[in-house]
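User: Second chain of the day. Same drill as before.
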Amino acid sequence: MSSTTVRPGLVERTSTLAVITLLAFLGNLLLLVTVVQSSALRQTHFNKHIINVAILNLLTSIICLPMVIGYSVTSQWDYGELVACKLFAHLLMSATICMCLSILAMNFDRLIAVSNPDLYATRINSVKTAFLIILVWLVAILFPLPLSLGIIPTSPHPARYVCTISALSSLQFLVPMYTICFGFPAVLNILIFIYVTKEAMSEKEAESRGSVNRPNSTIRLWPEVQTAGVVFILFLIWAISELPYIILSSIEQYITSAEVDQEFNYSPDLDTTFMWLKFCNTFALPLVIFKWRKDIWQKFKDLIFCRKSNSVVDASPRPEKHPTRNKNLKLKFQ
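Assistant: Same format as last time:
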């Protein structure tokens, strides 16, 4: 092959990864700036979880994705297998775990808000929110620590264009990590969504019968349910984009583990597709938040157009004219 020959799929791979990286970096950066520059937005406990995930996606777009692009262009790992490969595998696994647990943390916040909206302010505060976020990061960093320490073997994966856990890994590490960091959080997320849905349906049914005994709670409940719906959308996107990669990786690592030690043959294109799909989740957060959170979208427009407008006034509906009412007033004065 001559030096000027372009390898099959090189342009497509590089272009796709470049677009993903750009969308992830710009989208999360704009979302982060929008929330942080507004004192009203950044003081909301749930928005602190949004800031946390936006920072995670930014770090992925700055650290991990450029190295994946480099691997994709050269088709070889040029950053060193002894240190950089271990650290990259650790960072990639930490980012994957942190995303899964962060969605669970957001869901836990919505569970408390929906279960009793009147007591949400007393049950959740800045200290508890910060503690939960720090706990998520600690778990995400400490569980894959054996990768960077060399206890669990890592190697470049030619079909995924990343460094990841290699063959002959120990099931004593793999099973607890995948169960605690992915299995339990996924099940808990589903259970929380079921509870929130039932709570919303019961309140809606009581309201339709005209027998709501807690009118103030009902008024406060629906915004919390709507925000829980945003978390549900983020969970669905995570399940579609990242879960296939997690399942395929866990199956491969189990079959090729030191205890099983068998070959696992499948199409490399499946690996590449699931890896690319996983990285698409890095720009999902700003798209979802800007679409379904009108308050943040309004602040974003104020930021883009450099205006100091009252977002409450802008977001509220304009008063409508009532021709019948005006006509009656005219007849009264006549």
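The chain has 15 helices and two strands.

User: Great, on to the next one.
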